[in-house]
Structures are given as C-alpha cells and as structure tokens.
Amino acid sequence: MEQTTLYIIIGLYAFSWLFQFFYHLYFLLKPALFIPRDKDQHQPVSVIICAKNEADNLKAFLPSVCRQDHPEFEVIVVNDCSTDDTEMVLAQLKTEFTNLYYTSIPLSKQHYQGKKLALTLGIKAANHEHLIFTDADCQPASEHWLTEISSQFTDEKHIIVGHGRYEKKKGLFNLFLRYETFFNAVQYMGFTLRNKPFMAVGRNMAYTKSLFENSNVFKRYLNIASGDDDLFMRQCATKQNTTIQTSYNSQTISIAPKNFNEWISRKSRHLTTAPLYKFGIKTWLITEAMTRQIFWVLTLCSLFFPTFVPIAAGLFISRLLVLHIVLAKAANKMGENKLYWATLLFDFITPVVIACVWFNNFISAKKKKWK
Q1: Domain boundaries in the chain?
Q2: Regarding the domain delimited by 36-259, which CATH topology (the fold level of the hierarchy) does it fall under?
Q3: Helix, strand, coil percent content, the chain, rounded in steps of 5
C-alpha cells in the first residue's frame, strides 16, 4: 500500500513537471516570438473611453490621447452618469482639442445600465470602422500608441489584444501588481496566438465596429455587471479574426490600485466572467494552476527524503529556468525590463491569491442567490 502511494506521488510529480514544461513552451513562449506586422497602414480610428466620476484622470491623461501622432483619429468620451466635474472637464478640453467629442448619460436613481450601455453609445457615435478602447485612468505609453495598435488590423484580423500595464512604484505590493498583470498578459496573448483567444483588457484593446454591431454581444449579458472585454472576446473572438500587439509603444499605463483591498475588489469584478470561459480554456487554466501548486508542494516535501532531493532539485531548477527564460524573452519584447525576476517571489503565491478571490466570489454569489 505504501509503495503504491509512493508511485502515485512520483507519477503526480512527474506529470506536474511535464505539464508545466509543456505549458511554458507552448503558450507562454509564443508572445515572446511574435513579430508584429509592419506599420504600412494608417487607417482612421476612433478611440472610445467610458468615464464615470473621472474628472481628475481625464484632466491628467486625456490630452495625451488627443495628441497622438496618428494621421486621422477621433476621441469619443462617454460621461457615464458622473456626479463629479467630468462634464466640465470635458467641455474645457473640447475647446482645446477639435478631435474630441463627448456625450453624457444622465444619472438615474432607479436604474444603472453599467459600462455596457456607455460602450454601446460610444461605438454607435464612432465615425470610423476601427475602434480603439482604453480607460479614463490610462495614458498611452507613447505618442505612437494608436499607430502601433491599429497596425495589426487586416482584412482577416478584426480584434487586436494589447497590453495594459500598471504604473511602476516602489514597494512589494506594486511589484506583485505589475508581475501578475504581466504574467496574465503573456498567458492570454499566448492562448490567442495558439488559436484559443479568450481574454483581453478593456484598457487596451481594439476591434471593428461592424464586428460589434453584427454580434449583439452585450444584449446577451445585460445581467452581468462587468467583464465587457472578456464577454466580447467570448462571443466574437475566433482563431481567424484575433491577433495581438506586444510592442511597448502600443501599450497603455494605468494608475495602480492604492492598496490590496482595492486590487481584490477589481480582481473580484473581473473574475465574475471567468465561469463563462469555454470549457477547454477553463481546463487549461485550472490544470496549470493546480499542477504549479502540486509541483511546489511536492518539491518542498521532497526535502524530507534525502534520496529524492537530487531528482527534485533537478526538476525544480529546470522548470524555474525554462519559465525564467520564457518570461525574460517576453519581458524584453514587451518592454517590461527585468520584471520576470519577480517569478522567484510570486510564482507559488499568485494562484493561491487568485483562488481565494474566486472562492470568495463563489460564496458571495451563493449568498445572494439564497437571499
């Protein structure tokens, strides 16, 4: 019986290592090797921004959007039921930028439609076929953001998945935020390039107006308060019509959450759409997280058995080395400097934190269901 148990543990350890090795090379390496299309087209684009009580952020970041070095573009801001000075800030900026347009949704005490209504209004108001999306608390990483992200549109590619990073600050918490965001980006970009697109971030993505209008995507998910980006990807993204853009100049930089509780709140809202991922995608993601944790736990347990220490050490170092090289290449491609070194700190703890957030969402949903 003890020998059978030992064989099972060894088999589980070997499977975890093999799966992790495969996952890193098959999915995570792909964005690092991605070569963007040449910027030989400069089609007109419409930038869509939804803003709810974002007066200070609009004042700080909207000018950098309106000043983009792109031949022809418009910026459409939808004031989504704001109660601060958003309307006044937009009116003032409108006098400075002729390519800025805005509309406002009046505050209703009886019903709030959420961001999906604001996005729909912004898209309907757009004059151009190619749409670029970002948030009010974001600024482009460069003046070439629109040109870089829109350069990946082709007759076949109608959805562009970009990277929205967090601003760099001092402290371990900020390092965790930036690493978790970076790893997620490499992961969902890798899935996209492997013909399994499932996710994007609304602070930096692009798609065509006709694709949105033909999908009626938001009408199907009016009962879900958030996740407009993931819901759109689930409904509209295919292996034929979706690609990525990794260059630093194509990215946006967002204000980082002030503390862990604020990040948890954001992550909780985002994970509300995770159960709607396709079965195959959920299987891949869950298996990766579980095998990662199993591998770490069994490696630590092997320290109590001297016979297995050399083998465990070899497997542990080889996995960490492969992951380190893959993320280093991706970081270099995406301009994330030496962020990949944070793997040493957060490789084990990140799935635990995400699992806790997901479990809290599940418990909260059950409580609401029975009220």
Answers
A1: 2-31+279-363, 36-259
A2: Spore Coat Polysaccharide Biosynthesis Protein SpsA; Chain A (3.90.550)
A3: 55, 10, 30
